[in-house]
Amino acid sequence: MQRGEWSDTHLFSLEDDIILHAWPETHIIAGLRTCWRLYRLLPSAPKVLLFSQTGRDCPTATVSCLSRFGGRISIVAQSYSANLLPALVNALEGGLHLVHMDLRSNNIGAQGMKLLLDSFCKTPRAKELKYLSLDHNNISDEGALLLGDLLRTCPLIETLNVANNGIGYHGAAGLAQSLPHCKYLSGFDIGGNGFGDEGIREMSTFLGQCKRLKQLSLRFNEIHVDGAENLAEHLPRCDSLTHLQICRNKLECSGIRHISSCLPRCNQLSFLDLSGTCICNEGAAILAECIVLCKKLQHLDLRDNKIGVEGASRLSSSFKHCNLLEFLDLSKNGLGDQGVEGLSSGLTWCERLVHLALGMNGFGDRGATSLGRQVRSSLQHLFLANNKISDRGAEALSSSLCGCPELAIVDLRWNKIGASGGALLGERLSSCVKLATVDMSHNILRADGSVNLVAGLARTSSSSSVRHLGLRHNLVEDAGLIGFSPMLSSLRSLAIIDLSCNRIGNQGALALAEVLPKLRQIVRVDLRENGIGDFGAMALAESLPCCPALSSLDIRINCFGAAGARSLRMAEERKKSVTISMEGWEEGVADTSLTRSWSQHDMARDRFLSFERGVFMMDRNVWVTLFVLVSMWLFNLYNTSKSTS
């Protein structure tokens, strides 16, 4: 259940320590600080969800009292709470009607699994459990064996998550033997356990008996060639399998050969994640031959596989038969311009493509131009970060992106796009009415480019949809922020703006402070590592109480002194809902004019120097060391000249 499902019209707050959310005729969600006043509401709700992400202790009454109502209970406790498990065990033994139990990240261990098993054996209603998540609980082999016994008492279980629990070969073997008893199992996540080829051999034998299994995750399990062979032998017996995740295992070319051979027999397969499996060019060619027969494939993730030019070309030729493909991720594969050109020709056939990620592939304008010609109008998410795209490539991309009416995310971080490229992107992206995120961090837009980019986004229909604007490390400076800050008020949905590392001083901060109260939905502002002094900090502090939605202001590593820090602290005290991060200011340092050393691809560029009063804002120990060395050199030089004379 996602927060996006919540309806503001049914959100209530009682006495500051209770968050209560009522779905009409469906659920009631209550925080762990639930009080007895909720009793009059609970009987009218067929389903109840107890939810915690705070790590607070759970009063025994909070869980156990709910068992008085015959309704179905769901428990979600996603952070450690010391007495949650004893309270839950008591409630189960008292007849708690449980269908959904999420105990992620509670470190219950093998002992906790024993307590749960004992309590489940004592209550007949435990048989109705359908969802169980024990992710990150360190249950180990002993706990996995106990979990196997517990599953035999829960024949209706549909979703089981035991990822990241340190389960080895013996635990995997014991758990696997209980799977045939779970006749309704449709989702199984046992990733991040590292039980290796021996464990997957035991597991795959019984997985084939789960006829209703739809989603299977085996990520990070140290599966090699032998494990892949065993898995490929039994996997086709899972007639309903739609999602298969085997990422971050060292399958290599031989292992992918086995996995690929079974894919055509998985008739319902729509989701395939093979990222980080070292398949290289040869493995990509083998995979391309097999996915041609996967007629229902919609999601293909091949990140970080060193596929290269030849592999990309072979994959491209197979896309002609993947008419339903919606998600394609080939990031970090070293494709270069030639590889992207080869891949682009196959994208013509992907008429339903929604998500395209080609980050960290080292291609430049040539590849971007080729890609721009083949971008489909269905595209919603475009990720091209960490490449070498400059203004010419940005122009080619912007020309095609303006024809994507559903476009929501454009990520062009860590490229070489300058002022003209930024201006064209701003102008042409303005036609994308659903555009929500534009991230141009770590480019070279400078003042003119940033002003033109924001002006384009604010000018037409996209102004009502943009929620995230990333301009980190673009040499925006005061001139740029002063130029585009009045236009920010046109971005009515803007929630996050990143202006860190941009040489912004007091004048830029003053301009931003004037427009912040007009941004009614702004949630987070990032001004780290700039040159904002006391006056700029005080102006920002004055504007904070007028920003109703603001929850975070990051102004670390700037140039304000005690006066600016005092104003920000007072503003934080007045507006309790906002968190201000301001570490890095120095006592007695007043407003300064900054000169910064910027290098496009080196984080050392974020270190800045201030020439105000003849003092650098660097570590004082560095200057002490330099002073000592220079003094010793002068002393030696004096002695040498004296002895010579």
What does this structure look like?
There is one protein chain. This protein has 645 residues and is of the alpha/beta class. It is 36% helix and 13% strand. It has a 23-stranded mixed β-sheet, with helices on one face. Strands 24-25 form a two-stranded antiparallel ribbon. Strand 14, helix 11 (336-347) and strand 15 (355-357) form a beta-alpha-beta unit. Helix 7 runs parallel beside helix 8 and helix 11 packs parallel to helix 12 (365-374). The longest helix has 25 residues, at 620-644. The N and C termini lie far apart (87 Å).
In terms of topology, how is this protein built?
Layout lengths: L10 E4 L3 E5 L4 E4 L16 E6 L7 H5 L7 E6 L6 H10 L4 E5 L6 H14 L8 E3 L6 H12 L7 E3 L7 H8 L10 E3 L6 H12 L7 E3 L7 H10 L8 E3 L6 H11 L8 E3 L6 H12 L7 E3 L6 H11 L8 E3 L6 H12 L7 E3 L7 H10 L6 E3 L7 H11 L7 E3 L7 H11 L7 E3 L6 H14 L8 E3 L6 H12 L7 E3 L7 H10 L8 E3 L7 H10 L8 E3 L7 H13 L4 E3 L12 E3 L11 E3 L9 H25 L1
Parallel strand pairs: 3-4, 4-5, 5-6, 6-7, 7-8, 8-9, 9-10, 10-11, 11-12, 12-13, 13-14, 14-15, 15-16, 16-17, 17-18, 18-19, 19-20, 20-21, 21-22, 22-23
Antiparallel strand pairs: 1-2, 2-3, 24-25
